[in-house]
Amino acid sequence: MKGAKWFIFIGGGALFLSIVGAMIYFGYKTFYIEQEWIEHPAYDYHFVLISEELDNDYWRLVEQGARRAAEEKNIFLEYVGPRKADNDQLLKRLDRMIATKVDGIIVQGVEGSEFEELVFKGIENGIPIITIDTDVKSSMRSAYIGTNNYYAGRLAGEMLIKQTTGNQSVGVIMGRFDAINQQERIAGFKDAIEPVERIQIVGEKESNITQSGAAQATYALLKEHSTVTALVGLSALDGIGIVEGLQEFLPNREVYVSAFDLLPATTALIKDDKIDVTIAQYPQEMGYASIQTMIDLQQSELLEKEIYTSTRAIIKENIIEYGLDEHAQYD
Ligand code: BGC
């Protein structure tokens, strides 16, 4: 009997301690605000940039642009995002940032009602939310800053028509099927090639926005469709992964390659004749403009809600002409 009492006593104590521990941990997570913000109240505003994937090269360029504007304009900027692209993780971060009552949130738009509800929650809490890179038109976001993704997809299709002759069996590699910008890009691409009978899409795969994912998708497309003559990548690391996949599995095959974005490795591969064209976006320009727009939003509503940054088709001649090299900054 005595033993049982001790058991209940120790067990109860342990339970109590774990509850208190959990409360401290989750309370910290919920109400966590960067130390630096607390120590430097001299900043004018506290903004957060939430990316699709924290360490993705493309998103680091968005961050660079945003940081430059933040420094110039006395803004405290936090940059956060899932370690690996994952909508649920992104939404969790968005929710947490709304709870910390920052002055503004700049976030990649995500498909689904949960995103729309969170944007509404942000607005109710007086926090303006801007979508960047990917828009969700159905949400109450205050503005969108980024590429016109439908137009960018069309441009990839138009370049394919211009740069090839004869029948083309096309394999498309998208970052993620459930990313709105990828859906818009493929819609534009399909509309552009639709009237041209010699060009047909034979397969579509996902890369999970990684280079190795794109290399694997390349392998799978070539295996399933031996007729493939053109591969089109719709997110930043896809073109680089396509070249890796081709070099590994079919080094002697001539395949037309279309990429997205102008990361240094892409520029190098264009110079090397491994990539025929890339549809360049200007992520630093996006990041910079998003901070400026968020500052404007602190004072008043915007007249212009869709702010499109530049989009260009870049081929080898342009790279030589502009003197771009692997280390250049692109905005
Ligand atoms: C897209 C981003 C994506 C990135 C992945 C870009 O082309 O605009 O949404 O996260 O590729 O590398």
What distinguishing features does this structure have?
331 residues; binds beta-D-glucopyranose; six-stranded mixed sheet; alpha/beta; 12 strands
Describe the structure.
The protein has 331 residues and is an alpha/beta fold. The chain contains 12 helices and 12 strands. The chain has helices at residues 2-31, 35-39, 57-72, 87-99, 113-124, 149-163, 180-193, 211-224, 238-249, 264-271, 283-299, 316-322, and strands spanning 45-50, 75-80, 104-107, 129-132, 143-146, 168-174, 199-206, 230-233, 256-260, 277-281, 306-308, 311-314. The strands form 2 sheets. It has a 6-stranded parallel β-sheet, with helices on both faces. Helix 6 packs parallel to helix 7 (180-193). It is globular. Bound molecules: beta-D-glucopyranose. Beta-D-glucopyranose binds next to loops.
H and E order: HHEHEHEHEEHEHEHEHEHEHEEH
Determine Rg (CA atoms, Å).
23 Å
- What is the distance, rounded to the nearest whole angstrom, between the alpha carbons of the first and last residues? 77 Å
Bound molecules: beta-D-glucopyranose
Low-confidence stretches: 24-31
> Which structural class do you get from the secondary structure elements?
alpha/beta
| Number of beta-strand segments | 12
**Order of adjacent strands in the largest pleated sheet:** 2-1-3-4-5-11
